[in-house]
Amino acid sequence: MSTIQPILESAIQLFPQLDSARLEAEVLLSHVLRVKRSYLYTWPHCLLTAHQISQFQALCQRRLQGEPIAYLIGHKEFWSLELQVTPATLIPRPETELLVEQALARLPIQSDAQVVDLGTGSGAIALAIARERPRCRVLATDNAPEALVIAQQNAQHLGLHQVQFQVSDWWQALDQVNAAVVVSNPPYIAITDPHLTQGDVRYEPRHALISGKDGLAAIRLLITQSLVHLEPKGWLLLEHGYNQAAAVKKLLTRQGYAMITTYPDLAGQPRVTGGQKP
Ligand SMILES: C[S@@+](CC[C@H](N)C(=O)[O-])C[C@H]1O[C@@H](n2cnc3c(N)ncnc32)[C@H](O)[C@@H]1O
């Protein structure tokens, strides 16, 4: 038997390499106890059961091996939405909120426009747009059915019933769909990129991350195919790697898009580029 405080302190010692050791230990322990983090400090002398201690220690060991904390606790916050995530989905990143902001900037508050999120994963982008623009018709697609199941559960849980889901290889199963705004955070890492062997991405689905030799295979395809489905004056908004903005702009220009602009994320990195169908 032990209480919260010593268990937490000993776990923090396990993660000396992590700046966020205390936060991570708190998140894992509050997940096991099914309480808010503040509970740990309000009730530091609360006794834990042997089962709770072993559950917590097992999670700490997995974290120590490098498993992302979002997979260990099964959820991640994005745009103030609590989203379920599993190893079938990418873990939504804060920088992707920029894509949501740019989509919303093109959708008046009462808009009932058709929006398509290609490669929705956990549903992060589609659900954030649906939350902010409740009259929009939002279609979320992915070619990974197991990811789409999670996205649908997230929509259900958040009561965002206006979002439709469709398994599709990019635009392939979407013949009849035209859209005013198309958003995508596609895979954009080159297969040889050394970052693939570091941090959280080691545990994320490879097909959600990698896109050919230069990381641009999916983006090339989306830029070409979306022209067929965009309404006149419709927008294509793409997230990309910090060093891909020039290449993405060039691809959009070659296909005849107008008003091509790149937007920086909170870290100042060029992260989203958009273009308008003439
Ligand atoms: C970088 S993840 C983005 C997930 C989510 N939109 C987000 O921002 O958190 C890319 C997504 O594209 C999906 N994807 C990869 N190839 C695809 C394809 N050919 N057609 C449709 N979706 C694809 C992956 O399954 C994955 O969910």
TrEMBL record:
**Top-rank lineage group of the source organism:** Bacteria
Q: Where is the Release factor glutamine methyltransferase N-terminal domain?
A: 8-74
Q: What is its EC number?
A: 2.1.1.297
Where do the Methyltransferase small domain residues begin and end?
105-189
Q: Which SUPFAM superfamilies match?
A: S-adenosyl-L-methionine-dependent methyltransferases
Q: Name one GO molecular function term.
A: peptide chain release factor N(5)-glutamine methyltransferase activity
Offer one example of a GO biological process linked to this entry. Answer: methylation
Residue positions annotated to bind S-adenosyl-L-methionine are G119, T120, G121, S122, G123, D142, W170, N185
Q: Does the keyword Cell membrane belong to this entry?
A: no
Sorted UniProt keywords: Methyltransferase, S-adenosyl-L-methionine, Transferase
Which reaction is catalysed here?
L-glutaminyl-[peptide chain release factor] + S-adenosyl-L-methionine = N(5)-methyl-L-glutaminyl-[peptide chain release factor] + S-adenosyl-L-homocysteine + H(+)
| Positions with a binding annotation for substrate | N185, P186, P187, Y188
Main role? Methylates the class 1 translation termination release factors RF1/PrfA and RF2/PrfB on the glutamine residue of the universally conserved GGQ motif.
Q: Which family does it belong to?
A: Belongs to the protein N5-glutamine methyltransferase family. PrmC subfamily.
Protein name, as recorded = Release factor glutamine methyltransferase
Query: What organism is the protein native to?
Result: Thioploca ingrica
Lineage start = Bacteria, Pseudomonadati, Pseudomonadota, Gammaproteobacteria, Thiotrichales
Q: Which gene encodes it?
A: prmC
